Amino acid sequence: ETSPRLPAPQNVEVYSYNFQSLLRWSPVAVGNGSVLYTAHYRTLSYEEWSGMGCSQTPQTQCGIPPRLRRRWTILLRVRAELGNLSSAWVHPPPFVPEANTTLGPPRVNSVSVSPDSLLISISPPFPPERGDFLQYLVSYWENTTSPTKKMLTGSETLLQIGNLKESTVYCFSVQVKLKIYSGHLLGEQRAPECHRTALG
Q1: Environment class of residue 90 by beta-carbon count within 10 Å: exposed (0-12), middle (13-18) or buried (19+)?
Q2: Is 41 exposed, middle or buried (0-12, 13-18, 19+ CB in 10 A)?
Q3: 74-82 and 36-43 as β-strands: parallel, antiparallel, unpaired?
Q4: pLDDT tens column, 51-104
Q5: Which residues form the Fibronectin type-III domain (predicted)?
Q6: Which residue, 58, 78, 99, sits at the end of a domain?
Q7: DSSP 125
């Protein structure tokens, strides 16, 4: 039975990073007994709620199934349970992974230096799906007191910054841009790293 005496979970939100998504909430405090939680999801095209593997769990978070398509609108709900009492369901705003996730920075695997270039090997921050169009945006600059930044864009995971001076320190930062249905999703910038070009 739904009980007005058992408060519903508060601060219910979705946290999503690189398409790994969690439903989170604040714990419900009661005088005695341990509160458990049940969470469900459904998509806009289905009326039926499905379990998320979080039924009567003491945890205050639950993973959203990764098999759900990124473009789908996902509806979620969670409630508190204590013995045979249940709180009201709490529904956070609808969640669309493609629009509501945060993309992290790409990984830099290696940097090869030559006298006039840096060759950067990178990998995306998440496993790409078939049909993904990813671009890498590289800003780079000579490590001086008043650096002028330049941009380089490419869709390959091997990027070359060319026309550099020999034996000079250059810094770069890289981020990913994913083409999505409604435009683009821009990822977080990687912390800059600096390398000295080789002597000619």
Answers
A1: middle
A2: buried
A3: antiparallel
A4: 999 999 999 999 999 889 999 999 999 999 999 899 999 999 999 999 999 999
A5: 102-200
A6: 99
A7: S
Whether 50 and 83 map to the same domain: the answer is yes
For the chain, give the percent of residues with pLDDT over 70. Answer: 98
Contact 187, 104 (CB under 8 A): yes
Residues 191 and 104: beta-carbon distance below 8 Å: no
Q: Check: pTM over 0.85? Answer yes or no.
A: yes
Amino acid, single-letter form, for residue 37: Y
Is residue 81 within 8 Å of 36, Cβ to Cβ?
yes
Which residues are within 8 A (CB) of 159 and not within 5 positions of it... i.e. 6 or more apart? 119, 120, 122, 136, 138, 152, 174
* Cβ-contact 82, 1 below 8 angstroms: no
Under 8 Å between Cβ of 90 and 167: no
CA distance 70 to 51: 19
